[in-house]
């Protein structure tokens, strides 16, 4: 299994900026082609002080389960990110999978799953709807989404003051209906299944962010599932937790 354990090791750039890279983790070649690819998108309220190191333990776990894992870094608030740069990077990072050697995986038929935590959950869900916008049209389609305690409603996030106004910092202004291109809650319904895994004791991003999204998606006829797990905001990215075991079980349904 390929495991980039240190900064710089195993990195593949998809752009010229220092934050435009991913880390590719592949299962052992002896098991055959990967089951599919999971794009791991870290959280941190889109801020530069949080980076792809948050996703590495999950990527290692995914590779051990037979998945190709693409641990994605992107520009964030404070290092050139914001709107639209952060979104452009996530789109470009996903599209870059077409140019990678993925251990015999055929992207035309294999699952391409975005899995993100917190702000990464927002970007994971956003990525599944991005191809509707001409700016990102023609990109690699996402076939399923796993949001881990995701910030899925930017307007509700700002109203609740989540992350000290992080949504407004991302957009450059308080979110409104005019920001539908960037807001998963305003992209409902998606054409792919969405699982929202969320800790019942989460005080950073309330469970209502996932619960409301799933309820509205189901009402709109989309396939969406709420998976409530015991624990706080970070239990969902602990690879030794029952919450992560439940997330792996969700992925088992896909490949």
Describe the structure.
The two termini are 19 Å apart. The chain has eight helices and eight strands. It has helices spanning 56-64, 85-95, 119-129, 154-159, 166-171, 184-187, 207-219, 242-252; strands spanning 11-13, 21-25, 37-41, 68-72, 112-117, 144-148, 194-199, 224-229. The chain has a single domain (11-252), classed as Rossmann fold. An eight-stranded mixed β-sheet has the order 1-2-4-3-5-6-7-8, sandwiched between helices. It is of the alpha/beta class.
Question: What is the CATH level 1 assignment?
Answer: Alpha Beta
Per CATH, which architecture? 3-Layer(aba) Sandwich
Please give the order of strands in the largest beta sheet.
1-2-4-3-5-6-7-8
Give the overall shape, derived from the CA principal axes. Answer: globular
Q: Give Rg in angstroms.
A: 16 Å
| Tally of alpha and pi helices | 8
CATH superfamily: Alpha/Beta hydrolase fold, catalytic domain
Order of helices and strands: EEEHEHEHEHHHEHEH
List the domain count as a whole number: 1
> Per CATH, what is the topology?
Rossmann fold
Largest sheet: 8 strands, mixed
- The whole-number mean of residue pLDDT values reads 95
Strand content: 15-25%
Contiguous low-pLDDT stretches (5 residues minimum) are none
Helix content: 25-40%
The rounded distance between the terminal residues' Cα atoms is 19 Å
Structural class: alpha/beta
């Amino acid at each position: 299994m390929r495991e980039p354990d240190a900064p710089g090791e195993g990195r593949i750039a998809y752009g010229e900026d220092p934050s435009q890279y991913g880390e590719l983790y592949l299962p052992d070649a002896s098991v055959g082609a990967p089951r599919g690819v999971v794009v791991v998108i870290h959280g941190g309220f889109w801020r530069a002080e949080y980076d792809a190191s948050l996703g590495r333990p999950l990527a290692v776990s995914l590779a051990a389960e037979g998945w190709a894992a693409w641990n994605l870094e992107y520009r964030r608030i404070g290092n050139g990110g914001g709107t639209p740069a952060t979104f452009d990077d996530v789109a470009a990072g996903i599209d870059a999978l077409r140019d990678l050697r993925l251990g015999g995986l055929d992207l035309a038929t294999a699952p391409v799953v975005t899995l993100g935590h917190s702000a990464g959950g927002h970007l994971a869900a956003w990525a599944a709807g991005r191809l509707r916008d001409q700016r990102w049209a023609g990109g690699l389609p996402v076939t399923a989404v796993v949001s881990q305690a995701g910030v899925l409603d930017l307007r509700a996030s700002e109203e609740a003051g989540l992350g000290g106004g992080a949504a407004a910092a991302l957009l450059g202004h308080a979110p409104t209906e005019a920001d539908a291109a960037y807001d998963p809650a305003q992209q409902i319904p998606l054409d792919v299944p969405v699982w929202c895994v969320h800790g019942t004791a989460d005080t950073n991003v309330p469970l209502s962010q996932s619960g409301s999204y799933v309820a509205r998606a189901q009402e709109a006829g989309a396939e969406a599932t709420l998976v409530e797990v015991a624990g706080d905001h970070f239990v969902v990215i602990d690879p030794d937790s029952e919450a992560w075991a439940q997330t792996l079980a969700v992925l088992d349904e896909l490949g």
